[in-house]
Write a structure and sequence with these properties.
The protein is 63% helix and 0% strand. It has 134 residues and is mostly helical. Helix 3 packs antiparallel against helix 4. The termini are far apart. The N terminus is likely disordered.
Length: 134
């Protein structure tokens, strides 16, 4: 076992190569993470349409693989365009929306809770009468 250890270590990638590889992978994953919602919305209409057309124009297995690659590429390109020109501007506009906070019950004036038919201060919609036991 000890004899084969140097052979295995020689074929392992260096730490610099690993970090470059992980950096590239993280960029790819970040890209697909950014376009994931657009990809979800476009994969069925675009991908399925192109794949269904493959039954008519590419009856061979190699032709179908080419059409599959075309469908995959077209879906990713359409998803990126949808993200870039629709989703990203919409997210920017949505981030500018400001909502007013609702007032807490302590800040609502007491007159708001008064019963319109009540004439004295003690009868409000906040006061509840307990059922009489009798």
């Amino acid at each position: 076992m000890g004899v084969f250890m140097p052979l295995r270590l020689r074929h392992l990638p260096r730490s610099g190569e690993i970090s470059i590889f992980l950096c590239r992978i993280s960029r790819v994953l970040a890209f697909f993470g950014a376009i994931s919602y657009s990809l979800y919305l476009t994969h069925a209409p675009i991908g399925c349409t192109i794949i269904n057309l493959s039954n008519h124009f590419a009856p061979t297995f190699g032709g179908k693989l080419g059409i599959l690659a075309l469908a995959w590429t077209a879906t990713i390109v359409a998803s990126y365009l949808m993200y870039r020109f629709a989703e990203k501007p919409a997210l920017k506009l949505a981030s500018q929306i400001r909502y007013h906070k609702r007032p807490t019950p302590e800040k609502i004036p007491e007159a708001f809770f008064r019963n319109s038919s009540a004439t004295d201060e003690t009868t409000t919609s906040r006061s509840f009468s307990s059922p009489s036991k009798g």
